[in-house]
Design brief:
411 residues, alpha+beta, Cytochrome Bc1 Complex, Chain A, domain 1, 2 domains, five-stranded mixed sheet, 15 helices, 11 strands, 44% helix
Length: 411
Amino acid sequence: MEHITKDGLDIILNDRKNTPRTSVCFYFAVDEPEKYSGIYALFAKLLLQGTKTKDAKTLALELEKNCIDVSIKAKQDYLKASFLFLNEDFKLAMQYAKDILLNSTFDELEKEKFKTKAEIKADLDSPRVLASDSFVRGIFRGHCYSNTCSKTLEEIDNVKKDDILDVYNKILNSKKVISIAGDIEDVNELTQYFSDNFDFMKTNDTESKIPVITDFVSKDGNAEIIKVSKANLNQAQLFQGWIVPSIKSDLYPKISVMNNILGASGLSSRLFVELRDKQGLAYTVRSSYEALLKSALFSFYIATEPKNIKKSLDGFIFELTKLAKNPPSQQELQGAKENLTGRLEYFSQTNSQLASMEGYNYLAGLGLNYSAKFIEMINNVSANDVSGAANYLLSKNSLICALAPDEYLNF
């Protein structure tokens, strides 16, 4: 893998000989908080809803006919346009990429707003999604990371075409990178092609205006509880979480290992064994760790009988405290490390996965070959590091979100 700068373009190349399909990912940094919640996701959807040369139906049919897979996603910190195609169709696929990225009309705004609202309303019918939405919106309160589905539903009607065009101009003037994984015959020819045809991908050294957030500030200085009443539920939905430093923090590999031990490794995780198997509190219980550029979120989740809300929350803290006081055994620690590194290797197999991962790592400022560096960091995590990460969480304020029938919310 190599990083090439060509006439103002940043290009990441991962030469994968004898692979039949090539993946190209165009990454754009998101440097400013959204004017309205969901506007970046709406912008991403509109990119595939017709260009100056093709309407949405024609575009979709031609992409399908030529076996060109396209996905465009907007996340909290970036926008990514991914193209996967047969090696011999490189120039054809890139013609479509250029048309989509340069010539989208955004004329289907009102139709896409209507569809988005319908999709959100359907999603929020799920108790788990509703609880998760309330949890994330609460814990990132006052920050653009709190822009959840429900907030988008409240604000999406405010979005006008000029707002979409403003997003487009900011995206085009942001930091950018082209990440490629495939069988590359001639590097010079490839980079010259992008220089000649994708000058709009010239990168800019912009500074993010999205603030860093490292702590959850509760209203009264203690753990805060959001209670959402919903009748006729057989299972209460519970989240408890902590805001922690971002992906560049020294804590990142330590919390990653801790997360795997507590609840992210499936049947062998402590939460699964203790709260599900031994206590019978739930069918679904887990921990998760989402690391972003300006913050990160560690959380517990359980779906349980409403009468078990307090017992489940006590179980979360009991397991976290137990790990804080007693470092994991070398066997458990090694198992967590192997699980993490194995997953990383599994999700680094295809050209699509590699182009996506390496493009993000570069855009995030993590550098080339970050996966190898991350594996080294994971392998250097000690049992005491894991206990230290657990103690770190216990020293911080958390947010609890409980969704259940009203009569069970008096815990």
